[in-house]
């Protein structure tokens, strides 16, 4: 028997060309069809909810985040990272590349690493020194997954060791002597830029480092510059450098926290105004409510200079530590607050925070719009019960080890976190627009010269 073809044209009277007739669609059929469509829609929605609803951040299982065991050991999630650290990093020696010593010690080599290790820019020194001692360091470039380029340029510049033009020219000279940088287009090379200026300290960063891995506490700067040197795909936000005297969790700590009930102030802001709107607003607010908000005038030099101990004694005497933006979006005060155990209140809208993919910052801090710095902020903070504040402080106490620049042999440290993030950047295969390869796996340049015969200085982008 023949079947009715769905594509046939209807003839006169509704008959198909093959002689068969279609049954007319009556009102009962229409009602039935509508009912079937409604039931199908409702069932589909129900199955969608069962299959695709994801837990909100507040209900996300703890296993998906970094956690600290009762013994103090850091557990990084397997998601996207692997189950163990397994990478090798080559650290360039200052004497092997002409010009590298100048980026570390200045033009006349008079600046010592000890002079650069303190303060908010000390991460450039600490990360370098920790990698030199790391078990993940290799002395063989052939087996390296990543290459670390040491440089203390922020400190060197601040101390008069190099000017901006010299920094730029010296970086270009250094990079032209690195065949492995040319090989990958810089994709497997790591640079540290520890200040608010970020990679902009190297004026030509957009030409030479636009594919490299940049470690910086500073995120997106398009609020201040046309182009940001930070790229969320390739770069890593690192913690600021908290005073070593505060990162020791025992009796030798510079100052210890005090009970919440004995703290004199609801909140504090310890910093210079620097002509910044948010900071000026906080200083004025402190004048209106001196019993709630402390914001003393800070002297960073001269006979009335506020010492380290005095600074942290002030910081620990409030329930909330306010952290507004300054010249840039990041602020060291955010990290310092965890060590005096006050809840940080971020007043910097563009801020980026370290290890955001494994730390739920809503559980340990508050972020408030910088456009709403007023009595409204104080009223809000005043409404938070002490038991809630204690809970946030307790959770912050568990993860603050990730702000401490210590060896990866420690159970938890900033260096461990950075290594996990670097491992995610490792690629089996690197290429640049100036590298080519043949059927036998050998890498060549445009002149068909094999990689191991490349001669420096190399042409750069």
From TrEMBL:
<dbReference type="GO" id="GO:0000139">
    <property type="term" value="C:Golgi membrane"/>
</dbReference>
<keyword id="KW-0812">Transmembrane</keyword>
<protein>
    <submittedName>
        <fullName>Glucuronosyltransferase</fullName>
    </submittedName>
</protein>
<keyword id="KW-0735">Signal-anchor</keyword>
<dbReference type="InterPro" id="IPR004263">
    <property type="entry name" value="Exostosin"/>
</dbReference>
<keyword id="KW-0328">Glycosyltransferase</keyword>
<dbReference type="Pfam" id="PF03016">
    <property type="entry name" value="Exostosin_GT47"/>
</dbReference>
<comment type="similarity">
    <text>Belongs to the glycosyltransferase 47 family.</text>
</comment>
<dbReference type="GO" id="GO:0016757">
    <property type="term" value="F:glycosyltransferase activity"/>
</dbReference>
<feature type="domain" description="Exostosin GT47">
    <location>
        <begin position="87"/>
        <end position="379"/>
    </location>
</feature>
<keyword id="KW-0333">Golgi apparatus</keyword>
<dbReference type="InterPro" id="IPR040911">
    <property type="entry name" value="Exostosin_GT47"/>
</dbReference>
<keyword id="KW-0808">Transferase</keyword>
């Amino acid at each position: 028997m023949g079947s009715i073809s769905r594509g046939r044209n209807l003839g006169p009277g509704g008959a198909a060309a093959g002689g068969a007739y279609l049954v007319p669609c009556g009102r009962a059929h229409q009602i039935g069809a509508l009912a079937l469509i409604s039931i199908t829609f409702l069932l589909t929605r129900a199955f969608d909810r069962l299959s695709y609803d994801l837990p909100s951040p507040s209900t996300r299982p703890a296993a998906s985040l970094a956690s600290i065991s009762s013994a103090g050991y850091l557990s990084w999630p397997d998601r996207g990272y692997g189950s163990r650290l397994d990478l090798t990093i080559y650290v360039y020696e200052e004497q092997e590349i002409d010009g590298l010593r100048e980026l570390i010690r200045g033009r006349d080599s008079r600046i010592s690493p000890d002079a650069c290790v303190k303060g908010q820019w000390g991460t450039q020194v600490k990360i370098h020194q920790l990698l030199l001692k790391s078990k993940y360091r290799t002395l063989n470039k052939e087996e390296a997954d990543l290459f670390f380029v040491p440089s203390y340029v922020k400190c060197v510049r601040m101390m008069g060791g190099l000017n901006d033009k010299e920094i730029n020219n010296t970086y270009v000279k250094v990079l032209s002597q690195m065949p492995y940088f040319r090989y990958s287009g810089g994709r497997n090379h790591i640079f540290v830029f520890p200040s608010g200026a970020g990679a902009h300290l190297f004026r030509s960063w957009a030409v030479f480092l636009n594919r490299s891995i940049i470690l910086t506490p500073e995120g997106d700067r398009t609020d201040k510059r046309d182009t940001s040197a930070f790229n969320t795909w390739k770069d890593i936000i690192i913690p600021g450098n908290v005073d070593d005297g505060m990162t020791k969790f025992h009796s030798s700590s510079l100052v210890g926290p005090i009970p919440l009930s004995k703290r004199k102030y609801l909140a504090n802001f310890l910093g210079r105004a620097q002509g910044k709107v948010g900071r000026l607003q906080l200083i004025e607010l402190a004048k209106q409510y001196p019993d709630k908000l402390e914001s003393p005038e800070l002297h960073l030099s001269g006979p009335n200079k506020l010492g380290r101990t005095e600074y942290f004694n002030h910081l620990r005497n409030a329930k909330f530590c306010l952290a507004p933006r300054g010249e840039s979006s990041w602020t060291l005060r955010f990290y310092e607050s965890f060590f005096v155990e006050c809840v940080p209140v971020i007043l910097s809208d563009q801020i980026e925070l370290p290890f955001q993919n494994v730390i739920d910052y809503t559980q340990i801090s508050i972020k408030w719009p910088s456009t709403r710095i007023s009595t409204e902020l104080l009223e809000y903070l005043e409404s938070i019960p002490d038991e809630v504040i204690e809970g946030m402080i307790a959770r912050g106490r568990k993860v603050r080890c990730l702000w401490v620049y210590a060896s990866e042999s420690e159970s938890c440290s900033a260096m461990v976190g950075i290594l996990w993030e670097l491992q995610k950047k490792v690629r089996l295969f690197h290429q640049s627009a100036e590298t080519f390869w043949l059927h036998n796996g050998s890498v060549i340049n445009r002149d068909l010269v094999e990689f191991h015969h490349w001669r420096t200085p190399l042409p750069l982008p």
